[in-house]
Amino acid sequence: xxxxxxxxxxxxxxxxxxxxxxxxxxxxxxxxxxxxxxxxxxxxxxxxxxxxxxxxxxxxxxxxxxxxxxxxxxxxxxxxxxxxxxxxxxxxxxxxxxxxxxxxxxxxxxxxxxxxxxxxxxxxxxxxxxxxxxxxxxxxxxxxxxxxxxxxxxxxxxxxxxxxxxxxxxxxxxxxxxxxxxxxxxxxxxxxxxxxxxxxxxxxxxxxxxxxxxxxxxxxxxxxxxxxxxxxxxxxxxxxxxxxxxxxxxxxxxxxxxxxxxxxxxxxxxxxxxxxxxxxxxxxxxxxxxxxxxx
Amino acid sequence: xxxxxxxxxxxxxxxxxxxxxxxxxxxxxxxxxxxxxxxxxxxxxxxxxxxxxxxxxxxxxxxxxxxxxxxxxxxxxxxxxxxxxxxxxxxxxxxxxxxxxxxxxxxxxxxxxxxxxxxxxxxxxxxxxxxxxxxxxxxxxxxxxxxxxxxxxxxxxxxxxxxxxxxxxxxxxxxxxxxxxxxxxxxxxxxxxxxxxxxxxxxxxxxxxxxxxxxxxxxxxxxxxxxxxxxxxxxxxxxxxxxxxxxxxxxxxxxxxxxxxxxxxxxxxxxxxxxxxxxx
Lengths: 295, 280
Known about the structure:
The complex is a heterodimer. Chain A is mainly alpha-helical.
């Protein structure tokens, strides 16, 4: 641990004054709100009438509600497709940019741009690209002699939404993995070349093990983002009345909490989502010991 | 002979590499180009399916300007919130990062691990209790809830700044101390200016994150055009101007342009910042 200086005199007070915002943030933002959500999830409260005790009623209601169970299924199914696609494609892009080709700074910037642009604006562009009759994608299909697809209709919408989300997330994963690739010492590859190792062998024996910590980190980030995805889903699946044709858990939390003001129910759903995320993280860290190579 | 063969193989490899790069470029830039191209077409041509507008026009943008009272207000709201969030995050995270990195004191490790634990807690868990607090304070419908919490530090920014300050020799703080510099001045005059690379990475990420945020303005601001941010405004237009793709794409260009401009100006810093935070 860093921090070798011992505070003297007035510094002791100043330290805590400078940490005061952070302490308030922990109380208000994270630790405190986890506690508050836990308690709220045991009540029924609409913000107008006084809250009443509900015990485990909200949780029971969630588990018996086909809408909520469908949302859990959609969320998990989405993450199960989104995470591997994100990580594998980001890695492919990083490898492509790590070959020392000329102009890669330009390509790197262009590939990264989607990550920082507004998902709402691009979501709007995707609704136009996916449009049923005159959208770009269906036009391309027709040029290729294929039948047009109702991209935002039942069935296809799941894949359409996943593609948009992956499109928006690739740049960030690519940059992180590229930094990981650059950190692999060139001497390893030179030694392998002398030993007569081919490209595939080098990739599986050197590259993959050496960047496995970065890949692991990327899997975690993608999982957390995938389970919390909201913007593209809001833009691509929301109907004019506000409900979604592909409601995820986060979407239901938003609707229950902030449109119907069922604070207890929404808190219970947020707690269930948090539990799913924490359980997945524990499982990942268990796997990490077997799959990830540290030095 | 061998040399020639290997050179040929290398050239073929490079060609394959460029083909792949251009293919990916078409996929990443495609939606941007389609957005821009559609926004430059007259409404009558929106379904012509051409990549380049046959009769290019700025009519959609002129219409945007006519809707200006709303739109300029939304751009300003987005900008104001992004600026305040950035200010709050940089100041409070740098202060905390400085204290954590330079000093050793009782309770430090406990506070730091509590802070890091919040990495695992999904933000949706904080959404509801925070909303209740702000609604009991009568602040829902105002912009305050959308920036005030940025002044309460954060795990991500503090961690980033602490990592940065850890590489600064502690002798710097000792020397300042010998000169009788008090702790807040030491931070303000010496350590804050020093943190420019890490702080600008945090600043850019906070700025774009706030600019692009949908969920929180949706929750806290009334769904009225002139009171909300550009992203929420766009999501409202989606139905108001349903089917008028040329106009909608002009709106999307407006939302994307400021961020893309910042990105291409500070591209290197942003990309290095993103790599820095991902590696740990």
